[in-house]
Design a protein that fits this description.
By secondary structure, this protein is an alpha/beta fold. Helix content is 58%, strand content 6%. The two termini are 74 Å apart.
Amino acid sequence: MASGSSANLKRHLRLKHPMVPIEKADKDDDSNTKSEPVSSSLIKSNASASLPKSTTNVVDCTKSDSKPSQNLLTNYVDVVKPLPIQKQRSIDLQVLKMICKEYHPLSLVEDAEFRKLVKMLCPSYTLPSRKTLTYSLMPTVYENLHATVKSNLQDAPAVSLTCDGWTSINNQGFYAITAHFFDKSNQLMSHLLECSEFKERHTGENIASWIMRVLKLFCIDSKVAAIVTDNAANMKSAASILKMNHLPCFAHTLNLLVQNAIASSIQGTVDKVKHIVQYFKKSSFALEKLHDMQGKLNENLLKLKQDVPTRWNSTYDMLDRVLRNKNSVVSTLALLNIKLALNVDDWKIIEGSVEVLKVFYEVTVEISAELNVSLSKSVVLTQIMEQRVQKFVSAENFPPEVTMLSNNLKDGLNKRFESRCKNELVSQAVILDPRFKKQGFCNENQYKSAHQSLLNQINVQQCDVQRVEDCSEEICIKEPAQSSSLWEEFDESVSKILSKESPATTFSIELDKYMAEPILPRCNDPLIWWGERKCIYPNLYTIMQKRLCIPGTSVPCERIFSKTGQICSERRSRLTAKNISKIVFINHNL
């Protein structure tokens, strides 16, 4: 009892349990107690009856054979079984992959809330520190990935390159180079070779020296089929110094063509549209009114787009978006009493310009594919643009400014892409693409020239004779057991004919057989077609691997710098150039 008194317990025993003796027994009376089995059994029965039901399972500690219960260690300490080393490494790799591919800072592993989240998901896993991630795990992954890329390139029959430069927010110059090739399964592959800081002057000699260093690092300096860059003079000079086949970027050339045509025809209307878009971009009140007006007119809630000179197709995007929001833009400007409205002639110019420029927008999107055959498309797409523009030139319902735009585009196409159609690499790629062949040329003379260049290729192309013999079907002739002179004259005549056949004749027959096959539908994959026929046309297949691996644009390098721009953000502006190079390499190749 709390007060130390047992009077209440005695009173309860007297009233409710009269058969239970409550007097204290002396030690001398032990023998007497043992002689009263009835009263002792009653004591046990009454005592057990007086206990609550929830205590009936309690162990009787008065028994001599019972042992006291022992508390477990887990009641006081959380015992966590450590992860296996292989599991720990795989999670570390996934954390690094997430940081590199999703553009997170390396300090993410030290964020308190992120560490709590990981601990809740997997208490046995311990996140690496930022220094461990930066100086131990990332270099290891980079070196392993670098070895993998190098191994893949060793098996490539030919490699084409794209190269470009870029400046970060810290005013650091970077150059990147990508490699494109066919793997063993005839799939077009793309790898980033290097994206590193370029501290020297951006001259052709310095760029050529940097490119050669990268190529020797991967042991592919003798496998380069062509290099694709923009139209800058230093890039052309670098390709000339390296004695590489150089192709200007199709999309970059197209962008220059369109910009020059716009500047000399509809620039006044474009400037007016820019001012309107800038007004809605800067004024949140005006933008809110525009959204309200779009809702009242039951129009889609579309944001206006601003023209950016360095972003391809941005002028078309700006004009097209303003035209689609014409009613809401005009109504909002009138409601706000803003004197930036476009007149009727301006709207006609915008409408006609969007119609003319649409084909250039679609061609840029089509040619910018990275893991598809694109070089052979460039000639066909050029013909399509010329045909469309010619229709706009002869149209009579366009304003004079749009007609001038069409004429400028036509002249630009003839000037900038005439030499491209005559390039041997491009023309051979058109013939070797089973979707185009002869149909990819606008006239017979271009086709004959490309056909002859392929025939001449056999003189410089050292075909693998063993591979031809393995792939070609052979008729095994068993000689008779006894020698006979019956076939001597016939065998001699056949051997004379075979000796007169030159490799050029064999290649010509192979090319004619290839040209006689039906054209592949445009939506089909030409690489699958070639994979099924590489044993039928072994010589053409060897040349095809050196032509169709060439991309039509330098867009792969542009995409590398788009990723690098997200990595070199304001939150990560203190990243060193070496770490940026490793992160970009892992981001693209892992």
